Amino acid sequence: MVDRYVMSIDQGTNSTRCILFDHGGRLVSVAQREHEQHFPKPGWVEHDAVEIWQNLRRVVPEALSGAGVDPAQIAAIGLANQRETTVLWDRRTGAPLDRAIVWQDTRTEPLVEALGRDPGREFFLDRCGLPPSTYFSALRLRWLFDHVKDLEQRARDGEVLFGTMESWLIWNLTGGTDGGLHITDATNASRTMLMNIRTLTWDEELLTFFGVPRAMLPEIRSSAAPYAESRALLPGVWITAALGDQQAALFGQTCFSPGEAKCTYGTGSFLLLNTGTELVRSRHGLLTTVAYQIGDRPAVYALEGSIAVTGSLVQWFRDRLRLINSAPEIETLARTVEDNGGCYIVPAFSGLFAPRWRSDARGVIVGLTSYITSGHLARAVLEATGWQTREVVDAMNADSSVPLRELKVDGGMTANNLLMQFVADVLDVPVVRPMVAETVSLGAAYAAGLAAGYWPDLEVLRRNWHRAAQWLPDMDSALRDAEYEDWQRAVERSLGWVKPPRPS
Q1: What pTM, to 2 d.p., does this model score?
Q2: pLDDT at 350 over 90
């Protein structure tokens, strides 16, 4: 019998990768290519959607070749993607109208300020579960309509299509201008500020408020269901799943029961808590989001704490300050000192996300003295991720009836043992990493395999999960409390840095 595999496409903030998984959830082959990050103005972050599509065309055959696998052996394709990044393209030519605006981009800040005043946060929280923030796609669409001549009219005439990255890639994979499928899934749609969080349909009040024509929007589908056969790269292979990357990681960590949580440590970090089919409104600065929807079953919801800058702070330390040559070196440098020397870094490069949602914040380094070395700065970089995680977990515990007792972790930063020990110390709970660290890709594969019948049910997936590493808390409680207080004082100094625009 010929072995069969599930293909996962993970279109992330920094790269696009293609991974093959076998029936045991084991990684068989991987191919990856980075794409360029464009920073045309302060606070602006952009990607070239054509470059990303071209990279996908390269990594798919590379992954197949690496495993010696024939396309006929692929049982299904699942996609995971950076979520709020906004792509607009011409329906007739298939060409993007400009570079994609990335989720980290803050150009919509003036609009956020206006929406916070009128109609106010509750208007949006009640309909889509999200507060006004530069994070979400609808504000980028409104900004583009306001700044690109004739764009809004072209969208109303049906000439322009909108999507996040999975929509763009699925459209190209299924034919593009020749009948390409224009869809999204409920997890990605829940990040636009345009989907009703209860009905999982585009919300007429929100569409009217933002002036977004329905004609440009993709059809909302379940996260795991047969979508269409691929016509490019893998002709005849069914695409059967799409999830936002953080929801995919929750799925890959097999957090299928209410109360189970994971945190993915990547460019940013994202902590999701499964709340089951109950929609929980956060009162402490978290997001209510769709965790996943399998076939025609009811949607499963989650509370999410989104941290904008974690891994990208290490990249900044490497590429901008040039104090290390590679990301792993930061742990070695941080271990040259015993503590942070009283120095704290608050990486509010794009403002502060959960639980504070302060777009007026900007990054600060506090506590600098002549005693501070590059080692202290390196430790402060890592500790910033730990303290931001603590803030999110505190909010989650306040919203949830069951306090967090264990945190499953994944993502590139979990290779840093010093950081993971610090996270366990400041949370005062065990931190656990699975054997397969690529849980975003694994989650997309699991959802695709379920929809295709490659795996029969969720329990089989649970049995595939195995622990690779565990970090247990080992910090004196008095020290933990004192350090956390200092971190919070540092955060206070980052607030109010961006002044409101002067009246014209």
Answers
A1: 0.86
A2: no
